[in-house]
Design brief:
This protein is an alpha+beta fold. It contains 9 helices and 22 strands. 18% of the residues lie in helices and 38% in strands. It is rod-shaped, with a radius of gyration of 44 Å.
């Protein structure tokens, strides 16, 4: 750790650097300081002695209004000689180039402190001391400096200490500091390298990572950088309404978190987080999705909050009508995209008519709970009626014995499973594998809803004489 420790041994510089002491009142340097402590005269531009200070016996009148106190004028001392000890060659020249005080000039405590700071700012020195000595020609100032050791290696330590993987490659560290190895450590150049490491984190999406501490160089020239890379302590889900108030949402937390590739113990990466938000929003059950942060129980870690605003996922409708084929009928439809807060889709369409009952029920789970491969399944039940093109668009149209056109009625259901062929749930798959089973009972009916397995010429319209055909289908995609 860099420290500033000016050592002043003579009365003159003690008075210059610190407050004046009564014991030094009779020294020659103290008398010189008293003679040179002057302030400008506003009338003629000449300098006049500073008036004596008010004694304790003098009456003190409270000021009528607050005024700013005039700055305390510092004492000046004549510098006779300047020397540098502790280094030679180029480093010695750097000290002389950094200081502004010159022999034969007057200087003050503030000016001398600025020179000490300037020496430190060169970055080459770990300690700077000022040793004064009284001489007949003035004060001899010796800047005693201690140079930094030669830099041999920069190593990075991440916190918390139990983090298994460091995202910063060793090659990046070496490329950043290799030109400084074998040279006297310069804190300014070292700091520039630290800024480059911080920029590497930013450029690669690790926006929470940064160097938080630089150690003192060891005796063998090793500097250790401590980095908080932004370890995720936990991922939490918060639900808000449109007014921004936190509420108890319907959607279960795992429906959101399983879409998130970031996990506890990972280093936060903005690109990964952006993809995670897109997947969560792509569920189609949220109006808005965003990320916020808060400190973890360990302040060196972070809690990632997934903030969601639930949308309207359900709908219901009803209607009625009259058709030549169906007569009077009524319809009811229902759909829910987030059934039970599990992102499951349930849909139902029911048509009740004077002659028949038709329906279409469907259920889909896009990701079976607990499955690591994003396997989905769907189930459907149906009863549908239509005029088949097989009977309607041939060379001659097919009519039933009562002169009506044949109606094909299909009643059945099925189940289908599907899985993306990808190495993990977060990679877009080029292929999907699906397999399913479906059963249908097919019947031919007339316009009154009665079975009619033959046409007007007695030709069989179904495989079975009963007019009921059972179909079993296995599907692979």
């Amino acid at each position: 750790m860099v420290r500033l420790s000016p050592v002043l041994s003579t009365a003159a510089v003690v008075s210059l650097i610190s407050a004046a002491h009564p014991v030094l009142a009779n020294s020659s340097i103290e008398r010189e300081l008293k003679l040179t402590q002057q302030q400008p005269n506003s009338e003629n531009g000449q300098v006049t002695p500073v008036p004596p200070q008010q004694t304790d016996e003098s009456p003190i009148q409270p000021p009528e209004q607050e005024t700013e106190e005039p700055p305390i004028e510092e004492k000046e001392v004549l510098i006779g000689e300047i020397a540098v000890e502790g280094v030679q060659g180029d480093l010695k020249d750097k000290v002389f180039n950094a200081i502004s005080v010159k022999p034969g000039q007057l200087t003050t405590r503030s000016q001398l402190q600025q020179d000490v700071n300037a020496i430190f700012e060169t970055g080459f020195f770990s300690d700077v001391r000022v040793v004064p000595k009284d001489t007949p020609l003035g004060v001899r100032l010796t800047f005693v400096v201690e140079a930094n050791p030669q830099l041999e290696q920069v190593q990075v330590k991440t916190v918390p200490e139990d983090v298994e993987k460091q995202v910063l490659p060793e090659k990046v560290i070496n490329d950043t500091f290799s030109e400084q190895y074998g040279e006297i450590l310069n804190f300014q150049e070292l700091q520039d390298g630290v800024e480059q490491l911080n920029q590497w984190y930013q450029d690669n999406g690790y926006e929470l990572a940064q160097v938080i501490n630089i150690s003192e160089p060891s005796a063998d020239g090793v500097v250790t950088l401590t980095v908080a890379e932004g370890v995720i302590e936990d991922i939490q889900v918060q639900t808000f309404n449109e007014e921004g108030e936190e509420i108890d949402g319907k959607t279960r937390d795992f429906i959101v978190t399983r879409e998130v590739q970031l996990s506890q113990g990972d280093i936060f990466n903005s690109e990964t987080a952006r993809n995670d938000l897109q997947r969560v929003f792509g569920l189609g059950i949220f109006e808005d999705v965003s990320i916020s942060f808060k400190p973890g129980e360990d302040p060196r870690q972070v809690v990632v909050n997934l903030e969601v605003v639930e949308g309207n996922t359900g709908s219901i409708g009803a209607g009625a009508g009259v058709g030549s084929a169906t007569g009077l009928f009524g319809t009811v439809s229902f759909q829910e995209q987030n059934l039970g807060g599990n992102n499951q889709n349930l849909s139902a369409d029911v048509q009740v008519g004077a002659r028949d009952l038709l329906f279409n029920l469907g259920f889909r789970d896009p990701w079976i709970a607990g499955d690591p491969h994003r396997t989905s399944y769907s189930v459907d039940l149906f009863r549908r009626r239509s005029i088949s093109v097989i009977f309607d668009e041939g060379e001659t149209e097919v009519d039933l014995p009562n002169g009506a056109r044949p109606r094909v009625v299909r009643t059945g259901g099925g189940i289908k499973f599907s899985r993306p062929l990808a190495p993990d749930p977060f990679t877009d798959a080029d292929w999907n594998l699906s397999a399913g089973f479906k059963y249908q009972r097919v019947t031919i009916q007339n316009n009154d809803g009665d079975l009619s397995p033959v046409d007007e010429f007695g030709n069989q319209l179904s495989f079975d004489d009963s007019g009921k055909d059972d179909l079993f289908l296995l599907e692979f995609d």
